[in-house]
Amino acid sequence: MAGNVPFRPRPSYGKRPQGRSDVVRKNDRIRAEKVRVIDPEGKQLGILPIGEALRLAKDCGLDLVEISAAAHPPVCKITDFGKHQYKEGKKQKNQKDTSAKLKEVKFRLNIEAHDYETKVRHGMGFLQDGDKLKVVLSLRAREMERKAFGMDIIRRVIESLADYGTTDGEPRMAGRDIIVLFSPKAHANKHKQSQKNAPNPDGSESIISPSP
């Protein structure tokens, strides 16, 4: 029938899969009619029709890459897509490596030697993984009269972790808790931990005990 054009679904290229925010559009996959363009040197070229922006990228022998899809209009840069992906991946890896998590280890005033050693080893492991560490010694109501003894335990913990982390300031009281924060040392490694956990000459295991 004349004028009866068969229905053709709109191409789905460039459409981001549901739940994905990490898909980068480039060139003809950019769906906006106008885009804000940045040239290869980082200079702002203003808002251009998508066709003109694509032509500029082609003239440079480069790609038009959408770097900020949420902006209105989207921001695109004329660049090499492969190099752009490499730089972004490297940046994300560096951010992941430098974003240390805060781990926590809790102590009690009447902690036994074995439990003390176990918790100290947990602290060593966290610091070796590059995480920051929060050591907390909680005091019950009547134990508040023995804060000095609690501080002795905290100082013992600081000595035990000296090879693995440095304190971010002095221990402090926060309500009924004594708190001290540690940042990992760059040179802390598994070899040091194995040396600390090595058995004694008689075959027994070393126990790190809190001050009496």
Description:
There is one protein chain. This protein is an alpha+beta fold. The chain has helices at residues 50-59, 81-98, 113-128, 147-160, 190-196; strands at residues 34-38, 44-49, 63-68, 75-79, 102-108, 132-138, 165-167, 172-174, 177-184. A hairpin with a 2-residue loop joins strand 8 (172-174) and strand 9. The chain is rod-shaped, with a radius of gyration of 29 Å. The chain starts with 33 loop residues before the first strand and ends in a 16-residue tail after the last helix.
Give the low-pLDDT segments: 9-20, 191-196, 201-212
What is the radius of gyration?
29 Å
Helix content: 25-40%
From the spread of the alpha carbons, the general shape counts as rod-shaped
What composes the largest sheet? 5 strands, mixed
Please, what is the CATH homologous superfamily of the largest domain? Translation initiation factor 3 (IF-3), C-terminal domain
- In whole angstroms, the N-to-C terminal distance is 98 Å
Concise summary:
The chain has helices spanning 50-59, 81-98, 113-128, 147-160, 190-196, and strands at residues 34-38, 44-49, 63-68, 75-79, 102-108, 132-138, 165-167, 172-174, 177-184.
What is the strand and helix layout of this fold?
Blueprint: E1 34-38, E2 44-49, H1 50-59, E3 63-68, E4 75-79, H2 81-98, E5 102-108, H3 113-128, E6 132-138, H4 147-160, E7 165-167, E8 172-174, E9 177-184, H5 190-196
Parallel strand pairs: 1-4, 5-6
Antiparallel strand pairs: 1-2, 3-4, 6-9, 7-9, 8-9
